[in-house]
Amino acid sequence: MTLFASRGGKNHPLDNLPPMVISPTEDRCVKSAFAPLHSNGIAGMLNAYRARTALMRATVQYAQQHERTPLVRRQRDLEVHNFKKLVGTFLTCRDEIRHPDPEYAVAFALRV
Fold first, then answer.
1. Which of 45, 40, 48, 49 minimizes the C-alpha distance to 13?
2. For the whole prediction, is pTM greater than 0.70?
3. Domain positions in the chain
């Protein structure tokens, strides 16, 4: 399967990504696509957070004030699940990580 990243706009950073090839039997990315994928992905997340600062602030305040509601519990469960999946994505290229504990290093780097 080949995935193409495109936002449809002119000069968008994701438009310059090479196609990422994913094998149906393995969830491993082509190494040449890994570096732009993570840098553009993180930049995209930061831009989205900056564009919706008030919404993000309101969401965080609601979650802090209503910790026991089912909505907030579900949100926290999804956040943990997505974080683990993101760490797993970075670990597909674990041989490029020069740390004795790659899982810890990736999780730490993503939290910073």
1. 40
2. no
3. 1-23+31-51, 67-112
Hunting for tokens 């993570």 — which residue is that? 38
Q: Which residue type, as a one-letter code, is found at position 108?
A: F
CA distance 73 to 76: 5
Query: 110: closest CA among 29, 18, 42?
Result: 42
> For 44-102, what is each residue's pLDDT tens digit?
878 888 889 999 899 889 999 999 999 999 999 999 999 999 888 888 888 888 899 99
Tokens of 66: 């209503």
Closest CA to 91 of 25, 38, 14: 38
3-state secondary structure of 21: strand
DSSP per position, 27-59 = ----HHHHHHHHHHHHHHHHHHHHHTHHHHHHH
